[in-house]
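Convert to structure. Protein one:
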Amino acid sequence: MNEEKYIQGFNNGYLLAEHKPEILKTVTQNLTPSNDYLEGIFDGKGQLEQEKVNAQIQSIEELRNKSFKRENGMEKE
């Protein structure tokens, strides 16, 4: 495995997913990760997607906790 190419692909995939997802979608829709660079691109894209899901879960849990505290009279006024 060429670690340098993988890291470069990962970083590029992450940045494209973050800033230009439409370009990344176009580029990757008919590709399979056939080399270290492309594998990195797909993994970088996946990393950003996972971070977005984790952030959404965190937001939902914060809202639930806030709602629970309010319903049970635990929230400070």
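Protein two, convert as well:
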Amino acid sequence: MADLFVPDNHAPDVPVYAPVPDADAQRLRRWLRRHYGGVFSGREQVLALTGANINSSNFRVGDYYVKTLTQRASVDYVDSFPEIAARLRAGGVPCAEFVSNAEHAGVSRVEEGGATHFLYAQRFIDAHYFRGAPEEVDALLPLLVPMSGALAAQSPTPGQREPYASLDLRSTQEAVAAELPARPADPFGLNAVAALPEAMEIATEFEGLRPQLDFSRLHHFDLHPHNVLLQGGHAVAILDLESFRALPFEISVAFTLFKLGRKAVASGALSAAQFKARAAAHFDLGRLARYARIELARRITAVLSLHYLHDNRDWDPDLVKHLRGLREAQQLFGTG
């Protein structure tokens, strides 16, 4: 295994935008004029947020942040985003406000090319991602409990109950294991063989814990460094509202601590021991360690399932990252 705490795909500290092809820019301007005619003139510069945008497209259009998503069978929750944002702000957690469209709604639907697209706009916030600085860690840790508490009264949609509602780690892992003997022993396959025994062990532990866990409330399950914006050491916006899903609070907060901690260590801002001391002032790390491992095992299993069972290799590079994560979590939570 390569060295731990190496910079990963969340390493850049500022959002990077690039020009988009004229045809794509014109299409987006047309959509915005149609649905937000009083806000957009149709002459704004359109820049695309670079990086991994597999499930959505993200833009800066003039003074606004604009996001588009293509409707999928599991996407029934986009209309809830403005309410999530409003509840977060009411609970003292920063989140950008939505711009109302011509129908006074926060989310627009666009029918084009035989598909339905979701479209929404928020005022652009000129800020940077989480860099791992001690003052940023101290700013975010006190928000984790209020962030979940703010959504206690919001009922999850069926789509928001995934991926945990139908999660069966062990069955998926066994299906992957059955595929391995017939597959070539390439680097990905060697890592898969190395990953499965520990992932299966964690799956067994999870099944024993499942009856004690609450899967009925919304929590952010992917608050990585690029899903929060900061200015001057203060959090100014929680991002990726699509990642508010129904899952146990323990898994949400544990994985968030892991992602923030590994960024702080990878950036050289804190040692693992220093981050652990800061986090331990707010949370019982010994109790949460197993839940960070559960979410890492879920992601490892998802990558393996996509590769071997669905012939989708988009997430292959994440396998080694999540395998390292199991070792990194031991250091951040003090279990190894």
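Residues 285-309 form the longest helix (25 residues). The mean pLDDT is 94.
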